[in-house]
Design a protein that fits this description.
The structure holds two protein chains of two kinds. By secondary structure, chain A is of the alpha/beta class. Among the domains of chain A are: about 95-205, Rossmann fold (3-Layer(aba) Sandwich), CATH 3.40.50; about 315-430, no CATH class; about 475-560, no CATH class. Classes of the chains: A alpha/beta, B alpha/beta.
Chain lengths: ~575, ~425
């Protein structure tokens, strides 16, 4: 195949660009083949939960049949492999070694029965107060070995400020175990309990995820393509598959991320907006600020674990088209459980979908069955079928609206720590609500009226997740801490800890942080065009001793490549077309 | 410690872009390491700890307490509206029962700010607790309130503001005024004629350690609180009694602060001073938050904590025991002392010289209170400052009797501008503030 340079929008790109996006969902695995950002083909297979690789192979073969493998730019996978392992508790046993120092009691920090505490403590400035006790650590190693534990997590309080204590503990025992996850590598954010949970999960799914990566690579090795494989992460960005193997937990919750990125790619997204994905059981809400999906401030929560895993801010409420509707103590209640499909599709209980059918807002399913289900519940209050259906539909819409408003109010009232932000802080003012999912068409006109801004139903929403995966750019984040009194700079996520001169400045820190972030993003498979680097934290404090002597500066910089769509895509209108 | 978990509100506002001056103790960096420690301990993820954004205090909130010369806008910055607003937010969350108790971890502080404000003293411009207290009364009706001020410095501003108020018990425990700014806060400073006994000063000798503070708490503060029966307890939570504080000489620890808060069980705590920003504040604040939330704080210690090296001497213990029993007797006999103080006069005067160390202003005040059995008593203040301003203020107290109010209105009416730059009228019950 001959590649030629053409002008694409404002960007210069290679001739034909083909990207495959694959979303392994709970029920179906969808794939989309994009050619120059237009949908050329879609494919769908039933997900084999016991053998995700098989579903992946099937869908890839379907979509790629008859195409030229040489023209393929990349394949992006959104997979539930990590999420499933965690949610279904199919994880490995992990020996945890914590260097906690003073603070919360150990009982509050213990994450499993294989958690052990060791002496050694780093304070908030990254100064080591107490060192490692070799014998103690070896002893813990003995226990792990005796118990047949092969995966270890090592986490220190404030290890992002000084990773050395963790690595020293690792050096004492590493030859004895298959894998060690280190807390400081997980995130630059402060939060010891979350660091413990993140490190634990990372080690617990290590084997499962690495086996998956190996299988994918083997499969791809048998095909004719040399295109790189990417994995979609929880933050709506991608990472090269081999780099992702170092940080398996990064790939959790990529399903909701794919959905949000899909909505972004299907809409003209540069405004503040709300995205609603109304499914059968749940409605997922996400928020865009000026076209960028908002991230969780610290990290996502999975299976009850609060983590430091960078992820999109989404909220899921138990209201969907198939939610069970009934009266409880005289009040109408919807969800959060689902008894099965809507009555119109043979389900056992009345649902919002049945209400919409009864109201004539949609003509899917068996209308008679829907009416009968609504009539049954209407009997409780002696309502007419229409009045009952209206009540059910209204309450569904109102519950979704109140969740949206609550989420917006939380975002807009998030605590801030400077006077400037109190007075000038940006507020999210949505101008549009994007609605996808089965009940999108009947519900959108009511929801937008209640919210007070217009709605929009993107086209091709049925393959939104696969498109979102295909078009997501590579994202990452780095945190730099420089302490000129100590004469040291730390970038925990990269394991960097070097000396700096006393005259080191905030500007130096920003330059280094940007360089390192660029290197990291390129290593993860980012394209130069997509390195939209942004400084998201920028603080420099004088460290004053006694009554006026300035001992040094404490500089804190955080930089990111934020979630967004790959360059070249943002053409006029910005929509994927068919 | 008590094992009952409580829902605790945290209003955290470190004002990372505000300082009195770049190297002043009250500067940007002050709560930086506290923030680090609170974040790293993951306290905000705990189910029973909720963070709230501070609201903004209004000019009206400030005028309910202070006479700012010439006006509020001239003596404050935006940061003061936020720190007073943070205290008010803490009170709101408690009063609305969204939380069981709340801690306003805000700056700048306020307990050296007096009724009349010509400028900043002791790093304080306006008294954020006092503004909060009057806000609570304005919005939620009259309350008996106790303030326990555990800052190392005598809270002379709070004392001045509540001096005549029998419904606010102000207890300050601090380093002996003969050895520390502002040089006041002795046991014989005991409240005005209408509120005798409702100002309690507990000066402690330098190098008092946990055991001395807790002795005063158990044997003096808690028994007095039991008798006063307040609707609300507020802790002015200064943290400069810490053994590592650079501008004081006490030996209190993070464990001591946590135990004190556990036993005192305040409804609202408001940060005051505390300038050992690396070695003390991170641990003290984590200790206080855990104690308020009813979570095990026994592992919260400073990395260099060694109770033996900071333990108070037996002589210090004896001095504290004597002091405590002396003050408790004063409290017990407060009613009988009133006759000696009041004698037969209808009005009682006091002269005050006030120095604003932060802004370098001197002020002279003549304060006159009407002796009254029915209320806190009508108050007038004639104040001249080295700024050139001379003002006259007429203040009708909260829950005032009709006589005090009527007299106050008459005095304000009949006072000519004359040699005053401004004359003010403040009526808390009617929420009236007038300037002429």
């Amino acid at each position: 195949m001959v590649r030629v340079l053409v002008n694409f929008g404002e960007k210069v790109c290679w001739g034909i660009i083909m990207i495959i996006g694959i979303d392994v969902g709970g029920t179906h695995t969808d794939a989309v083949l994009l050619e120059n950002f237009e949908i050329k083909k879609t494919a769908k297979v039933v997900t084999d939960r016991e053998n995700l690789i098989k579903s992946l192979m099937e869908v890839t073969e379907n979509i790629f049949r008859g195409e030229d493998p040489g023209g393929l730019e990349k394949i992006v996978l959104s997979t539930t492999i990590s999420t499933n392992a965690i949610v279904q508790d199919k994880t490995d046993r992990v020996g945890m070694i914590l260097a906690a120092g003073p603070g919360l009691s150990s009982e509050m920090l213990r994450i499993n029965e294989d958690t052990h505490f060791t002496s050694g403590y780093v304070n908030h400035r990254g100064i080591r107060v107490t060192g490692t006790d070799r014998d103690e650590v070896s002893g813990i190693g003995d226990i792990f070995e005796k118990e047949g534990i092969d995966h270890v997590g090592i986490v220190g309080k404030f290890s992002t400020r000084n990773p050395r204590l963790e690595t020293e503990i690792g050096d004492i025992i590493n030859y004895r175990f298959g894998h060690i996850s280190f807390g400081h590598r997980m995130s630059g954010n402060l939060n010891f309990p979350r660091r413990i949970a993140t490190t634990y999960l990372n080690a617990a799914i290590w084997d499962t995820y690495n086996a998956f990566v190996k299988n994918v690579m083997e499969y791809v090795g048998h095909t004719n393509t040399t295109a790189p494989i990417y994995i979609l992460k929880a933050d709506g960005g991608t990472s090269g598959i081999s780099q992702s193997a170092e940080y398996p937990v990064g790939s959790i919750l990529s399903g909701p991320a794919a959905s949000v990125m899909g909505i972004l790619s299907l809409t003209n997204g540069s405004r503040d907006a709300v995205a609603l994905d109304i499914g059968g059981t749940t409605t997922d809400i996400a928020i865009f600020a000026g076209g960028t999906p908002l991230l969780e401030p610290l990290g996502v929560t999975i299976a009850g674990h609060k983590t430091l895993i960078r992820g999109l801010l989404t909220r899921s409420i138990g209201i969907g088209g198939d939610s069970r509707v009934r009266y409880e103590d005289g009040s109408l209640v919807i969800g959060p459980e689902r008894d099965g499909p809507a009555a119109a599709f043979g389900g056992p209980s009345p649902t919002p979908t049945d209400a919409m059918i009864a109201l004539g807002l949609t003509d899917i399913g068996d209308r008679k069955k829907a009416l009968k289900a609504v009539e049954e519940i209407a009997g409780v209050k002696n309502y007419s079928i229409e009045k009952m259906a209206k009540e059910m539909f209204d309450l569904s819409c109102r519950k979704i609206i109140s969740a949206v408003n609550e989420m917006l109010s939380e975002i807009n009232n998030k605590p801030v720590y400077t006077i400037h932000e109190i007075f000038e802080g940006k507020k999210i003012n949505p101008e549009v609500v994007y609605v996808v999912g089965g009940p999108a068409r009947p519900m959108a006109p009511y929801i937008d009226k209640m919210l007070g801004f217009p709605s929009s139903i993107p086209e091709h929403a049925e393959v939104a997740n696969a498109i979102g995966a295909a078009l997501a750019r590579t994202t990452t984040e780095l945190t730099l801490l420089a302490d000129t009194e100590k004469g040291e700079m730390t970038i925990a996520e990269e394991g960097v800890q070097t000396s700096i001169p006393r005259e080191f400045t905030r500007e130096d820190a920003i330059d280094i942080c940007e360089d390192k972030l660029r290197d990291r993003a390129l290593r993860m498979g980012a394209r130069e065009d997509d390195l939209d680097i942004e400084i998201i934290e920028d603080q420099a404090f004088n460290m004053v001793r006694g009554m006026g002597y300035t001992a040094g500066k404490n500089i804190r910089i955080k930089a990111q490549v934020k979630p967004g769509l790959i360059a070249g895509f943002k053409k006029e209108g910005g929509n994927v077309t068919k | 410690m008590s094992q009952n978990k409580k829902k605790t509100g945290l209003i955290f506002f470190p004002a990372f872009d505000w300082a009195i001056s770049p190297t002043h103790p009250e500067r940007e960096e002050r709560l930086l390491y506290t923030q680090d420690q609170v974040f790293e301990e993951g306290l905000l993820d705990l189910d029973n700890i909720v963070e709230f954004k501070p609201g903004l205090a209004t000019i009206q909130d400030i005028n309910r307490i202070h006479i700012c010369v010439p006006d509020v806008e001239s003596v404050i910055t935006e940061s003061h509206l936020i720190s007073a607003g943070g205290a008010i937010t803490a009170a709101e969350k408690v009063m609305q029962k969204e939380v069981d108790n709340a801690f306003a971890l805000v700056r700048p502080p306020g307990h050296h700010a007096m009724r009349v404000v010509h400028g900043a003293r002791g790093f304080c411009n306006i008294n954020i607790e006092a503004i909060m207290v009057e806000y609570i009364r304005h919005k939620y009706g009259h309350k008996k309130i106790a303030i326990v001020d555990t800052d190392c410095h005598h809270g002379d501003g709070s004392q001045d503001i509540f001096w005549h108020d029998p419904n606010t018990l102000y207890i300050s425990v601090h380093q002996d005024g003969r050895t520390l700014y502002p040089g006041s806060g002795f046991p014989d400073e005991f409240g005005g004629p209408n509120a005798l006994g409702y100002t309690i000063n507990i000066p402690l000798p330098p190098n008092t350690s946990d055991e001395g503070f807790l002795f005063a708490l158990d044997n003096l503060i808690l028994p007095i609180l039991d008798e006063f029966k307040p609707d609300l307890i507020i802790n002015s939570a200064g943290q400069d009694n810490h053994y590592s504080d650079p501008i004081t000489n006490m030996s209190f620890s993070a464990q001591g602060y946590a135990i004190l808060n556990d036993r005192l069980s305040p409804d609202i705590a408001v940060l005051e001073g505390g300038y050992s920003i690396e070695s003390a504040l991170p641990y003290v604040n984590v200790g206080i938050i855990l104690a308020m939330a009813g979570i095990d704080y026994s592992h919260v210690t400073e990395p260099d904590y060694n109770p033996e090296t900071i333990r108070q001497t037996p002589q210090t213990s004896r001095k504290i025991e004597q002091q405590v029993s002396h003050i408790y007797n004063l409290w017990k006999n407060r009613e009988s002392r009133r006759a000696d103080v009041v004698k037969s006069g209808e009005y009682i005067n006091r002269d005050k010289s006030i120095f604003y160390d932060t802004d370098g202003i001197s002020e002279h005040q003549e304060e006159t209170v009407r002796v009254c059995d029915e209320c806190g008593g009508l108050l007038t203040i004639d104040s001249s400052a080295s700024t050139g301003n001379r003002i006259f203020a007429v203040m009708v107290p909260g829950q005032s009797c009709p006589v005090c109010r009527k007299k106050g209105e008459e005095i304000f009416e009949s006072t000519a501008r004359g040699s005053y730059n401004y004359t003010y009228f403040q009526d808390r019950d009617k929420d009236i503030f007038l300037v002429k």
